[in-house]
Amino acid sequence: MNPTDYEYLRKLLKDHSGLDLSADKQYLIESRLLPLSRKCGVSGIGELVQKMRGGSSLIIAQVVEAMTTNETFFFRDKVPFEHFRDTIMPEMLKARAGRRSIRIWCAAGSTGQEPYSLAMSLKEMDAVLAGWRVEIIATDLSTEVLEKSKSGIYSQFEVQRGLPIQLLVKYFKQNGELWQINPELRAMVQHRQLNLLHDFSQLGVFDIIFCRNVLIYFDQDTKINIFGRLAKAMEGDGFLVLGAAETVVGLTDVFKPFPDRRGLYRPNGARAASPQAAMSMPKIAAMAGR
Amino acid sequence: MKTCLVVDDSSIVRKIARRILEEMDFQITEAEDGEQALEVCKRAMPEAVLLDWNMPVMDGYEFLGNLRRLPGGDVPKVVFCTTENGMDHISRALHAGANEYIMKPFDKDIVAAKFQEVGLVALPEQSSI
């Protein structure tokens, strides 16, 4: 790929999505954009970039989507879902026994495997959740993947990655080679298009935020900024779940690691004493009382 | 080293499965049909069975029923691996004591994921960037 095109793409992706590619990610661009150039009927990445420079916003949007869409599968990494079942939910069932409602946000919901894995986990603990209201909001930058997520339709390959066969039988309906998750589970997940670089305070305040494998693409300042806003979008006793390769340590003190649970974080209560935190407190308290 | 019995009437499928499973550190024995597979199990019970459905002499479903009635036959984790991809077949297999179910075509990732699912192999170390 010619270096000028590479620099152009790097800058464009940084500006549009916050995606921060290092100088050696040519292979990533090629693997994502060559299929896209075929789809757009152009000869290769050079011509694709030409069209982008020409101001084709449709192609720019497709390039941003192609570059920011991640591989995902059901119950990815397993451990976060064990934390959800064994640590987060038991704590929340106690802490929210008064209002009997829990709000969950999948901040990089992608094609739906993560929010639906959470929905299945919740169905599996149905007995203790009788009379509770649990909301799952799935957001993603890409409208294309959100559409797929809404449809709840997966290929035979996709349903065989990470999804136990018992759960496939229990929660999916077969349609030829495709499998669709049941309407009841689909109804548990709400979808919204959202760029994490932009203000997300309109989503309200959450008890649990899954934000996995998306911050790795951002530079340090952007990460710190997002962590700060995530903390404001979370109840003081909520839980943040990050990807296996991600951490807040060394970046921010708005969250602190939960002992002995890799990838699990909670708002840093100690920080409430500082003036900045105090300023955000009334808002959280007000929303918590809604 | 864990043992896995690969049961399929296609020598090509057995070969592919063997290559994938050997890479996952399994010691492989092969059988061409359910009857041969049952003989293998009577001699030495494997820890895992990768099992085709449609085979001559004795099919995978019948083999599974027979296996589960053998002394120690409840031990092996049985993972079906078949082109019978309908919900009805999957339900029957689970009811008969299958632990997991792979719908063909399959690849290395699917085999690894399903073997993790039934606890035959550990989860991979979580990747770091």
Observed structural traits:
heterodimer, A: alpha/beta, Chemotaxis Receptor Methyltransferase Cher, domain 1, Rossmann fold, 2 domains, seven-stranded mixed beta sheet, 11 helices, B: 129 residues, alpha/beta, 5 helices, disordered C terminus
Provide a quick synopsis of the model:
With 290 residues, chain A is α/β, with parallel strands linked by helices. Chain A has helices at residues 3-17, 26-40, 45-53, 57-68, 79-95, 113-124, 143-151, 165-171, 183-186, 220-232, 275-288, and strands spanning 101-106, 133-140, 153-155, 172-175, 178-181, 189-193, 206-211, 234-242, 255-257, 264-267.
Structure commentary:
The complex is a heterodimer of chains A (about 290) and B (about 130). Chain A has about 290 residues and is an alpha/beta fold. The C terminus of chain A is likely disordered. The relative contact order of chain A is 0.12. A seven-stranded mixed β-sheet of chain A has the order 6-2-1-7-8-10-9, with helices on both faces. In chain A, about 45% of the residues lie in helices and about 20% in strands. Chain B is of the alpha/beta class and about 130 residues long. Chain B has five helices and five strands; from the N terminus they run E-H-E-H-E-H-E-H-E-H. Chain B has a five-stranded parallel β-sheet with strand order 2-1-3-4-5, sandwiched between helices. The longest helix of chain B is centred in the first third of the chain and has 13 residues. Chain B starts with a strand and ends in a 12-residue tail after the last helix. The C terminus of chain B is likely disordered. The interface between A and B is medium-sized, with 21 and 22 residues.
List the helices and strands and how they pair.
The complex is a heterodimer of chains A (290) and B (129).
Chain A lengths: L2 H15 L8 H15 L4 H9 L3 H12 L10 H17 L5 E6 L6 H12 L8 E8 L2 H9 L1 E3 L9 H7 E4 L2 E4 L1 H4 L2 E5 L12 E6 L8 H13 L1 E9 L12 E3 L6 E4 L7 H14 L2
Parallel strand pairs in A: 1-2, 1-7, 2-6, 7-8
Antiparallel strand pairs in A: 3-5, 4-5, 8-10, 9-10
Helix pairs in contact in A: 2-4
Chain B lengths: L1 E6 L3 H13 L2 E6 L2 H10 L4 E4 L8 H10 L7 E6 L4 H9 L4 E4 L4 H10 L12
Parallel strand pairs in B: 1-2, 1-3, 3-4, 4-5
Helix pairs in contact in B: 2-3
